[in-house]
Amino acid sequence: MVAAPPAVAEKPGVGSAIGWSYVLTGGRIGSTVLVTFMLAKLLGPSEFGIVAMATVFITVAQTILQQGLVSAIVQRDKLTPEHLDAAFGVMVISGFVVGGAAAALSPVWALVNREPQLTVVCLALSPLVLMQALTIVPEAVLRRELQFKSVAVRTLSASVVSGVVGVVLAVLGAGVWALVAQSLVNAFVGLVVLWTVCPWRPSGSMRLGAIRDLWKFSMHSANAGLGSMLSSKSDIIFTGLFFGPVATGIYRLAARLPDMLVDVTVRSLQQVALPSLSRLQNDRAAFIRHLTTLQHLGALTGLPLLGVLVAAAGPLVEFLGPQWAGTEVPLALLCLYGALNAYGVLLGPALQAIGQPAKLAAILWTRGILGVVVFAGVGTLLHGSSAATQATAIALAAIAMQIVMNAASIWVTVSRTVGGSIPRFLAPTIPAVLAGGAAAAVPWLFSVLRVSIEPPLLAMFCYAAVAGVVAGALLWVTDRRLRMLVRKKLGGRLAWIPLSHPRAGRHAA
């Protein structure tokens, strides 16, 4: 019998958790997209680049804290209050130690990047490490119990309040400090709300036996987390090291928008994947069916939206202003990167859920080391090019790496570890691929028809609307699973919906 934290009463179902996970991430991303557009309009690539270079430094420290114990708490079959007390004690101590180290090493990071302003920006952001440490255990408790409604309250509140603070300071001329304040306020408000909505409280005791119980799994997961950080952040790290804040700012904005869409779609499922798949770790057939369903949902929601973003990329960059000229090409490329990433996001939780964090660590470290070599090579070759060209080259290198690593990761996870069929795993996502490609082609359609729309903001909305309609219609016609899902959710009200395309039905008959 699982010993759960006493204050958490009833676990919601996986379907409810997925719904609240989408609410959580969707609301956060919606507010963040609006804030990002406003800040990009008010600020420039240099300010975005400096904060991105500082944030990736702080992220290293946060990753050391976050990955291991969270996964151990969520995945562990038998969890006692002593485990949670021990984990919280370790997190508080580690937060002070690692946060202090990050502050002390800030001048070194600024020196390596040849950007003096990074010292004060990194120092200002160093409290994020301690605030992260204080959130890890209560958030893991909520996620383990699939209490995503509570997590949604915390995340949305923090996103809205910090966005308002960032925009107001940018309007007042605070420059880079508007982005710094946004990050700090987001973390602080999230911390306060999290402890308000989470019923668990530490008892103040730390038992070494409980720490040892979590240690083995958490060490593998922490190793995987560091590999994940290196593999996901090496593009920003080397763009900053070789090209400076302007190219980093262009690349970061171009990467952030697709990242947000992947967050609201596939990573929303990632939050549910580890606890829901962990319940099936002893039933491989049910495990692969559930993983395939989650991957289909991620592709269904993610790929068409990324295609819509590609369609709107040109007028969007024009709307942001001349300081962002040239960003549309890396933005379109990084939408493709995001589409590829949608096929890798759920594989990490799958390996953790089935008790194979060491395999995940090996995959992520391989990708991270490959990224170091590839991005360092790009940085050396294009050191004297324009900022937009440099950002485009980094995006192309990221796409090539993602193709190679996705192929390897799917083979290791689906075929070798779980024992599933790769074609059956990927086949349900084909309609989403077609829908995303059709949406991305909408600007070409407007060009062929010689339709010109002004101003840029109107053009952006028109392109996005047409692309959305095209993608939605194609999905509806080609995706039988989607029609089944809609019919199941709405019951008899949509009993007239055919489960198969009429021609396909006659052919099958």
From TrEMBL:
Its main location: membrane. It is a multi-pass membrane protein. CDD domains: MATE_tuaB_like (cd13127). Keywords: Cell membrane, Membrane, Transmembrane, Transmembrane helix. The chain crosses the membrane at residues 48-74, 86-112, 118-137, 158-178, 184-202, 236-254, 297-317, 329-348, 360-382, 394-413, 425-446, 458-478. The keyword Cytoplasm does not apply. It holds the Pfam family Polysacc_synt_3. It is found in: Cell membrane. Belongs to the polysaccharide synthase family. This is Lipopolysaccharide biosynthesis protein. It comes from Asanoa iriomotensis.
